[in-house]
Please model this.
Amino acid sequence: MDLSYSDEQRLLGESANNLLAARAQKPGATDLWKEMADMGWLALPLPESDGGLGQGIVDVAIVTEAMGRHRARSNYVAGVVLAGGLIAALGNDAQRAALLPSLADGSMRLALAHAEEGARYALAHVATSAKKSGAGWVLDGKKIAVLGGDVADRLIVSARISGASRDADGIGLFVVARDAKGVTVEGHATVDGAGAARVTLAGAEVGAETLLSDNAFAAIQHAYDRATAAFCSELVGLMEAATKATIEYTKIRIQFGKPLAVNQTLRHRMADMSIACEEARSMALRAALHADDEDARSRGRAIAGAWAKVSRAARFVAEQAIQLHGGMGVTNELEIGGYLKRVVALDAILGGPDLHLRRHAALTTLAA
Amino acid sequence: MDLTFTAEERAFRDEVRAFLNEKLTPDLKRSHHLTPSVFSDPPVGNRWQKILHARGWAAPLWPKEYGGTGWSLARRYIWEIESAAAGAPSVTPMGLRMVGPVIMKFGTQAQKDFYLPRICNAEDYWCQGYSEPGSGSDLASLKTRAVRDGDHYVINGSKIWTTHAHHANRMFALVRTSDEPKKQDGISFILIDMKTPGISVRPILTIGGDHETNQVFFDDVRVPVENRVGAEGQGWATGKYLLEFERGGAMTSGRLRAILADIEKLASTYRDGEKPYAATETFALRRSQAEIDIDALEMTELRIMSSLQSGQNPGSVSSSLAKLRNSEIKQSLTALAVDALGQDGLYWEGHRPLYEMNAEPGIPEEALTALPEYLNSRAYTIFGGTSEVQRDIIAKVVIGM
Model:
């Protein structure tokens, strides 16, 4: 047992914070992808044999924490941990060689097309179908909330090869080019500015070599658990930044002839925000340290518990940050509302705290 | 960065389990389980501490030079988790966790040599003389006065909420040795022998029906000047240093986890129609929320402790935060236990101690403590500085004004 960061990890955190702080000074600078590639962040969790750096979620979480702190609008986790992670876990040698080095160096962008209407957050819910056709497959269905799908070159599409629409067994994963015949990608803006897409597959014909796995549920679940851990850390950085900005604001905002920060009601609110930050930091670290547990149930409990705690805490902090900024907090003239937008986006992506509390309880009952 | 145990740490865990298996008798476990007060009953806690001391394990948080174990973070964690899970009594914090570290930091060599071994081996039992009838959250307004008379201080006044004063042979106290413009100045930290003439103790019964706390009166009580710890008038800093240990710097989450496991067992013995209450969704969600809260506190405590050397003070924000969360979780657990009882939550058993009751209780024995524990646990967010005071402390640091 050892709870200290290595020197390399501390340096990673410093460089991530420095770069993102500098970029935050230049709003309008759009895509960080190239810089993230140059910094090695895209390669971070990918296997060394595939052009990656072979690091764990603890390291990814160091980067995402800095992203949260500086409100980097990015689909980093979706591209690298979800899509990249699934290719690393499931791909054969040819698939890994074709995709991962280009993901790591930033020349190819990937997105996971998994969520569907009506799925809510059941990861086994896949109604999109994959039917054998000659040597290849035909894909039919609709995908929503494809994070980074608006700019992705390739989509990792889940489609059902066998079974009913919520069966864990029979879910295939395919690597599909965005311009493949029968594939329509409709990019759309997202509340947090990161961007996503809706994808329609209408008789999309893909070759046999596009099949990553014909039974991918366990890997999808694991990839989401890893991504959730990374998102927990992003929220920690976000919460700390929102709390800090709020404290600074209440110290300079004069009402009734004195700074807002002298009022005990507000002081206790900011104490609660700080406590929420500490609890979230603890749970995010715990999630990262459990993100690769082999036992899916114990991993799931750690991850669901962390998200239940962190996303609730983040919502509290982001809402109170606006509240304590008063009317200005509700405007686009201040940056403070951006924190809440990211919290809202992540809850939409992963499901909110109540859902994850339920998942935790369900996994606990399973054990008993 | 790694949460897993090394082979050496696993071997230590086996050693701890073997020890607990051998030394933690069913009688000790039952006495602990049937104690609804905030602290262990002194006879029970002391019995256990003497067993620990014989093994050299009485002071897991102390450095080796003072008789502590000098354990690594992992070993302290394993010890707390395993002894709590096994149902071991807690030992009184007043000596080991409170006055001990103060004597180590501020005491003279003579004070260290005399007091520390007696704390470790449970020869002395300490109580805390901080609060007064007129000084609760505003501790610095305390009025108990110590007037110098030759080699002695003559103490007059009263302390309140003095846990186990009726059992303790020593008290550490904050007393006013001079009047200064700033009320925090002029306070001294002093060690008092409870057998000194002029001390009287009045019991105060809690809403849970337990005699745990007292009011203590001082009527011309003569205490040697050599019993003062630190310089005269500098007691406030000493007293605050102690409070950091009272509030934080320990691994309290292991106990909470053990309590949650007990509640789950309790909820399994009660039924809701055909199924155990534990199997209902209402219970499952509350149980999960409690576990998640405990997970977060445990990780926070591990983070705090991993940054400290043994014996070092945890710092004001960390200790306030740990105290706040521990007290709130503890209260929610006691409420969950009462909820599990259903209509048995009406049943009142006034006999104390519960582990020495002769008559058969009207509800299952393991259900007896839930209600008094719930009531007594309201004290958690009040003693050691109220939750509101903890938030004041945190706010002062994070806001910086």
User: Anything to note?
Assistant: The beta strands of chain A are 110-113, 129-133, 136-147, 154-160, 171-177, 183-188, 196-206, 211-213, 254-255, 258-259. Chain A has ten helices and ten strands. The first strand of chain A starts at residue 110 and ends at 113.
